[in-house]
Design a protein that fits this description.
The chain has 190 residues and is of the alpha/beta class. The chain is globular and about 50 Å long. The structure holds 5-O-phosphono-beta-D-ribofuranosylamine (GRF). The site of 5-O-phosphono-beta-D-ribofuranosylamine has 12 residues, from helix 1 and strand 5.
Length: 190
Protein backbone atom coordinates (compact mmCIF):
# COMPACT_ATOMS: atom_id res chain seq x y z
CA UNK A 1 0.00 0.00 0.00
CA UNK A 2 1.47 3.37 -0.98
CA UNK A 3 2.14 5.54 2.05
CA UNK A 4 1.07 9.16 1.86
CA UNK A 5 1.89 12.05 4.17
CA UNK A 6 -0.80 14.73 4.12
CA UNK A 7 0.23 18.28 5.10
CA UNK A 8 -2.57 20.60 6.25
CA UNK A 9 -2.93 23.78 8.31
CA UNK A 10 -6.69 24.22 8.56
CA UNK A 11 -10.06 22.55 8.25
CA UNK A 12 -8.93 19.39 6.53
CA UNK A 13 -11.82 18.77 4.17
CA UNK A 14 -9.37 17.49 1.55
CA UNK A 15 -7.72 15.25 4.14
CA UNK A 16 -11.23 13.89 4.85
CA UNK A 17 -11.91 13.33 1.14
CA UNK A 18 -8.65 11.36 0.83
CA UNK A 19 -9.55 9.19 3.83
CA UNK A 20 -13.05 8.64 2.44
CA UNK A 21 -11.66 7.56 -0.96
CA UNK A 22 -9.31 5.12 0.78
CA UNK A 23 -12.21 3.67 2.78
CA UNK A 24 -14.25 3.31 -0.42
CA UNK A 25 -11.41 1.44 -2.11
CA UNK A 26 -11.08 4.18 -4.76
CA UNK A 27 -7.62 5.19 -3.56
CA UNK A 28 -5.18 2.36 -2.89
CA UNK A 29 -3.04 4.08 -0.29
CA UNK A 30 -2.77 4.81 3.39
CA UNK A 31 -2.20 8.10 5.17
CA UNK A 32 0.91 7.26 7.18
CA UNK A 33 1.19 10.73 8.73
CA UNK A 34 -0.61 14.04 8.98
CA UNK A 35 1.82 16.97 9.27
CA UNK A 36 0.33 20.17 10.68
CA UNK A 37 1.98 23.50 11.51
CA UNK A 38 -1.04 24.88 13.44
CA UNK A 39 -1.61 23.22 16.83
CA UNK A 40 -5.21 24.50 16.96
CA UNK A 41 -6.22 23.34 13.46
CA UNK A 42 -9.45 21.38 13.08
CA UNK A 43 -7.72 18.82 10.87
CA UNK A 44 -5.89 17.46 13.94
CA UNK A 45 -9.16 16.34 15.55
CA UNK A 46 -10.19 14.70 12.28
CA UNK A 47 -6.88 12.82 12.13
CA UNK A 48 -7.25 11.62 15.72
CA UNK A 49 -10.80 10.42 15.02
CA UNK A 50 -9.49 8.40 12.05
CA UNK A 51 -6.47 7.03 13.89
CA UNK A 52 -4.02 8.84 11.57
CA UNK A 53 -0.66 9.50 13.20
CA UNK A 54 0.15 13.20 13.45
CA UNK A 55 3.24 15.36 13.61
CA UNK A 56 2.14 18.77 14.87
CA UNK A 57 4.76 21.50 15.25
CA UNK A 58 5.06 25.22 15.85
CA UNK A 59 7.40 26.81 13.33
CA UNK A 60 8.37 29.61 15.71
CA UNK A 61 9.89 27.08 18.09
CA UNK A 62 12.57 26.30 15.53
CA UNK A 63 15.42 28.64 14.53
CA UNK A 64 14.49 28.51 10.84
CA UNK A 65 12.67 26.61 8.08
CA UNK A 66 15.61 24.29 7.50
CA UNK A 67 15.43 23.16 11.13
CA UNK A 68 11.74 22.22 11.14
CA UNK A 69 11.88 20.72 7.67
CA UNK A 70 14.81 18.52 8.76
CA UNK A 71 12.61 17.23 11.57
CA UNK A 72 9.70 16.67 9.18
CA UNK A 73 11.94 14.68 6.81
CA UNK A 74 13.01 12.51 9.76
CA UNK A 75 9.34 11.91 10.70
CA UNK A 76 8.53 11.02 7.09
CA UNK A 77 11.43 8.57 6.90
CA UNK A 78 10.31 6.87 10.12
CA UNK A 79 6.86 6.25 8.57
CA UNK A 80 8.35 5.37 5.15
CA UNK A 81 6.16 8.01 3.50
CA UNK A 82 6.46 7.91 -0.30
CA UNK A 83 4.45 10.97 -1.35
CA UNK A 84 3.76 14.35 0.22
CA UNK A 85 0.22 15.57 -0.40
CA UNK A 86 -0.17 19.27 0.42
CA UNK A 87 -3.81 19.95 1.33
CA UNK A 88 -4.11 23.48 2.62
CA UNK A 89 -0.55 23.66 4.05
CA UNK A 90 -0.26 27.44 4.18
CA UNK A 91 3.50 27.67 3.91
CA UNK A 92 6.08 27.78 1.11
CA UNK A 93 8.07 24.56 1.07
CA UNK A 94 11.85 24.99 1.41
CA UNK A 95 14.87 23.27 -0.11
CA UNK A 96 15.19 20.63 2.63
CA UNK A 97 11.78 19.08 1.89
CA UNK A 98 11.98 19.73 -1.85
CA UNK A 99 15.32 17.93 -2.16
CA UNK A 100 14.10 14.95 -0.12
CA UNK A 101 10.81 14.57 -2.06
CA UNK A 102 11.56 15.92 -5.53
CA UNK A 103 8.86 14.76 -7.95
CA UNK A 104 6.88 13.17 -5.12
CA UNK A 105 5.21 16.24 -3.64
CA UNK A 106 1.94 17.68 -4.98
CA UNK A 107 -0.41 20.52 -4.06
CA UNK A 108 -4.04 21.42 -4.70
CA UNK A 109 -4.94 25.03 -5.47
CA UNK A 110 -8.47 26.47 -5.79
CA UNK A 111 -8.09 28.23 -9.16
CA UNK A 112 -7.09 27.45 -12.72
CA UNK A 113 -3.37 28.17 -12.44
CA UNK A 114 -1.49 30.13 -13.60
CA UNK A 115 -4.42 32.47 -12.84
CA UNK A 116 -4.83 33.57 -9.22
CA UNK A 117 -1.86 32.00 -7.40
CA UNK A 118 -1.27 32.67 -3.70
CA UNK A 119 -3.71 33.47 -0.93
CA UNK A 120 -7.50 33.67 -1.30
CA UNK A 121 -7.57 32.40 -4.88
CA UNK A 122 -11.36 32.02 -4.70
CA UNK A 123 -11.78 35.65 -3.61
CA UNK A 124 -9.36 36.80 -6.30
CA UNK A 125 -11.37 35.00 -9.01
CA UNK A 126 -14.66 36.26 -7.62
CA UNK A 127 -13.46 39.88 -7.52
CA UNK A 128 -12.03 39.63 -11.03
CA UNK A 129 -15.47 38.65 -12.36
CA UNK A 130 -14.18 35.70 -14.38
CA UNK A 131 -16.82 33.34 -15.73
CA UNK A 132 -14.89 30.16 -15.08
CA UNK A 133 -12.50 29.14 -12.35
CA UNK A 134 -11.64 25.74 -10.98
CA UNK A 135 -9.07 23.54 -9.32
CA UNK A 136 -5.45 22.72 -10.15
CA UNK A 137 -3.27 19.91 -8.90
CA UNK A 138 0.42 20.44 -9.53
CA UNK A 139 3.87 19.26 -8.55
CA UNK A 140 5.51 21.46 -5.93
CA UNK A 141 8.59 23.48 -6.75
CA UNK A 142 10.26 26.40 -4.96
CA UNK A 143 7.75 28.96 -6.26
CA UNK A 144 4.28 29.94 -5.09
CA UNK A 145 1.86 27.61 -6.96
CA UNK A 146 4.22 27.42 -9.96
CA UNK A 147 5.04 23.71 -10.35
CA UNK A 148 4.15 21.54 -13.35
CA UNK A 149 0.39 21.07 -13.71
CA UNK A 150 -0.92 17.52 -13.34
CA UNK A 151 -4.72 17.94 -13.46
CA UNK A 152 -7.34 20.67 -13.66
CA UNK A 153 -11.11 20.81 -13.51
CA UNK A 154 -13.40 23.73 -14.30
CA UNK A 155 -16.10 25.39 -12.19
CA UNK A 156 -18.46 27.79 -13.97
CA UNK A 157 -19.28 31.02 -12.14
CA UNK A 158 -22.90 31.97 -12.73
CA UNK A 159 -24.01 35.57 -12.27
CA UNK A 160 -26.16 34.86 -9.21
CA UNK A 161 -23.39 33.01 -7.35
CA UNK A 162 -21.99 34.38 -4.09
CA UNK A 163 -18.37 33.90 -3.05
CA UNK A 164 -19.58 31.24 -0.58
CA UNK A 165 -21.38 29.43 -3.42
CA UNK A 166 -18.20 29.48 -5.47
CA UNK A 167 -16.19 28.16 -2.55
CA UNK A 168 -18.65 25.30 -2.04
CA UNK A 169 -18.58 24.43 -5.74
CA UNK A 170 -14.78 24.46 -5.82
CA UNK A 171 -14.56 22.26 -2.73
CA UNK A 172 -16.92 19.71 -4.29
CA UNK A 173 -14.58 19.49 -7.27
CA UNK A 174 -11.47 19.33 -5.06
CA UNK A 175 -12.84 16.43 -3.06
CA UNK A 176 -13.30 14.36 -6.24
CA UNK A 177 -10.26 15.46 -8.20
CA UNK A 178 -7.59 15.13 -5.51
CA UNK A 179 -8.15 11.46 -4.55
CA UNK A 180 -8.64 10.47 -8.21
CA UNK A 181 -5.43 12.24 -9.27
CA UNK A 182 -3.43 10.72 -6.40
CA UNK A 183 -4.66 7.27 -7.41
CA UNK A 184 -3.49 7.86 -11.01
CA UNK A 185 -0.11 9.13 -9.85
CA UNK A 186 0.68 6.30 -7.48
CA UNK A 187 -0.33 3.72 -10.05
CA UNK A 188 1.88 5.39 -12.67
CA UNK A 189 -0.95 6.89 -14.71
CA UNK A 190 -0.02 10.61 -14.89
C1 LIG B 1 -8.26 24.06 -0.34
O1 LIG B 1 -9.15 24.95 -0.97
C2 LIG B 1 -7.02 23.93 -1.16
O2 LIG B 1 -7.23 24.10 -2.53
C3 LIG B 1 -6.14 25.03 -0.64
O3 LIG B 1 -6.41 25.10 0.73
C4 LIG B 1 -7.75 24.65 0.97
C5 LIG B 1 -7.70 23.63 2.07
O4 LIG B 1 -8.98 23.32 2.53
N1 LIG B 1 -4.75 24.77 -0.94
P1 LIG B 1 -9.22 22.11 3.52
O5 LIG B 1 -8.39 22.37 4.79
O6 LIG B 1 -8.77 20.84 2.84
O7 LIG B 1 -10.67 22.11 3.82
Amino acid sequence: MTKLAVFASGTGSNYDAIIHAIQQGELEAEVALLVCDQPEAKVIEKAKANGTETFVFEPKQYPNKQAFETEIVEQLKQREAEWIILAGYMRLVGATLLNAFEGRMINIHPSLLPSFPGLDAIGQAFEAGVKVSGVTIHYVDAGMDTGKIIAQDVVKIHKDMSKADLQAAIQRVEHQLYPATIQKLITGGE
